[in-house]
Design a protein that fits this description.
4-stranded parallel sheet; 19 helices; globular; binds ligand F0G; alpha/beta
């Protein structure tokens, strides 16, 4: 090959790739039906690439959120709902990849520390692969839905009397001494799987790149995985630019936000974490430097949101008929702040990544609607406008007698007034 030819990068046939990825969706092969493995041309991680451990993950919906868009003051807002995966969270896209590698390499045991979603996903995929799974979770600090899943899928569930960060330390001990395959998000194959929603999102947008992607931040791997996905598409010539990626944390668990403010992200300042969004209750995130890189290279932002702001955002998304868990709702709460600060303009097209399904943590939702969620101090942080918004969103169940025409009268009052009238 001559010198001038060698310097021309060999790019794939972009149209052929796009067609192939779409076409696989109509195939009967399990690998093709998976929204992760139909992109296997960019996932060179298995020898037997056509037989991964799959629950047909991915292929999740992209929803419009017109009322939330109006509430935050932008024209165009979509949500990619990763909670619509088989175990109800975005973790499935990474777990199919890493569990397939573990099975192909002949491991018998897998383990992870988790705030609940990773453990649910790992337990399910390990069961499909006939591997034995150990999950380490902080006692009393994970949502019931998630705990029930790892039990149902047959994992050995160890509830440790510590927080998530303590579980990670205990897991390190296990991995050092026993032949167990580590499935926390430092596992590189998980990130390979978690990059594929970036491909899927662009496919759903006819390959038009939005200006902004907003993700929740906990252990801080997901932002980097998506960033890697977009970068790969950019280098292959499928897109002409990479969207900005912003990471939002709960204020009570915001080591990234604090470290960026204190030292520009050069050094992680761990903290004792506390938030009702238990999925992201993490004070010492493993992938801190990856998140700093994602934000800096894509031109995104990081922001912290309060418990009150999270609760409101979750109710606003819910009122559009789309249930997500509190950790996912930080994205809308963060967007509100970024718009108010002028960092995102009205014309910019924004996609929220909703990471978990509302049924993961129904207690949070019930507590919100029955006004048992926030302390008085937290609730008092709401602005006057937000207070009105809370009042219009809350739907406390009404308990009625069935004697006489009580039900009819109550509903007739509401129909006449055109609003839900509390009794
Ligand atoms: N949203 C949900 C619903 C999560 O479960 C997590 C993390 C995140 C966001 C944050 O993603 O860690 O990549 O920054 N859950 C992990 C777990 C920690 O164990 O399930 P991240």
């Amino acid at each position: 090959m001559g010198g001038s030819e060698a310097s021309v990068p060999r790019l794939p046939n972009v149209s052929a790739l796009r067609w192939l990825w779409q076409e696989r969706r109509s195939s009967t092969l399990a690998a093709d039906q998976s929204g992760v493995w139909r992109f296997r041309d960019l996932l060179p991680i298995l020898t037997d690439i056509e037989h991964p451990i799959t629950l047909r993950e991915g292929n999740t919906p992209l929803y419009e959120l017109p009322r939330s868009a109006a509430a935050v003051g932008i024209n165009w807002l979509l949500a990619k709902h990763q909670g619509m995966n088989p175990t109800g969270s975005f973790k499935d896209t990474g777990m199919t990849a890493a569990l397939s590698v573990a099975a192909e390499r002949g491991y018998e045991w897998v383990a992870c520390a988790s705030t609940g979603n990773t453990s649910a996903a790992m337990a399910a995929y390990a069961a499909r692969a006939n591997l034995r799974a150990i999950v380490l979770i902080p006692e009393g600090r994970i949502a019931w839905g998630k705990l029930s899943q790892s039990m149902d899928y047959g994992a050995i569930t160890l509830q440790l009397k510590t927080d998530f960060d303590g579980c990670v330390r205990a897991l390190g001990e296990l991995i050092r001494h026993l032949p167990i395959y580590l499935l926390n998000s430092v596992n590189p194959y998980r990130l390979e799987g978690q990059k594929t929603p970036a491909f899927e999102l662009l496919e759903q947008l006819d390959w038009h790149v939005p200006e902004h992607i907003i993700v929740p931040g906990g252990n801080l791997a997901n932002n980097a995985a998506l960033g890697k996905g977009f970068e790969e598409l950019f280098h292959l010539g499928l897109i002409s630019r990479v969207p900005k990626i912003s990471v939002i944390q709960a204020a009570g668990a915001s080591p990234l936000v604090r470290s960026m403010a204190a030292n520009g992200g050069r050094e992680l300042l761990p903290m004792k974490a506390d938030t009702r969004a238990t999925a992201i209750r993490i004070g010492n995130p493993a992938s801190f430097y990856k998140a700093v890189r994602t934000i800096q290279t894509t031109g995104g932002w990081t922001e912290a949101v309060s418990e009150q702001e999270i609760a409101l955002a979750k109710a606003q998304i819910g009122a559009e008929g789309i249930g997500c868990e509190p950790a996912s709702a930080v994205t809308l709460a963060g967007l509100k702040k970024l718009v108010a600060q002028g960092k995102i303009t009205r014309e910019e097209r924004v996609v929220l990544i909703l990471t978990g399904h509302t049924l993961k943590d129904p207690q949070y939702t019930i507590d919100y609607h029955t006004q048992a969620l926030l302390t008085e101090l937290e609730a008092a942080e709401a602005s006057a406008i937000d207070e009105v918004e809370h009042d219009s969103l809350r739907r406390q169940p009404m308990v009625l007698d069935v004697e006489g025409e009580t039900v009819l009268r109550a509903v007739a009052r509401m129909v006449e007034a055109g609003v839900a009238i509390p009794l």
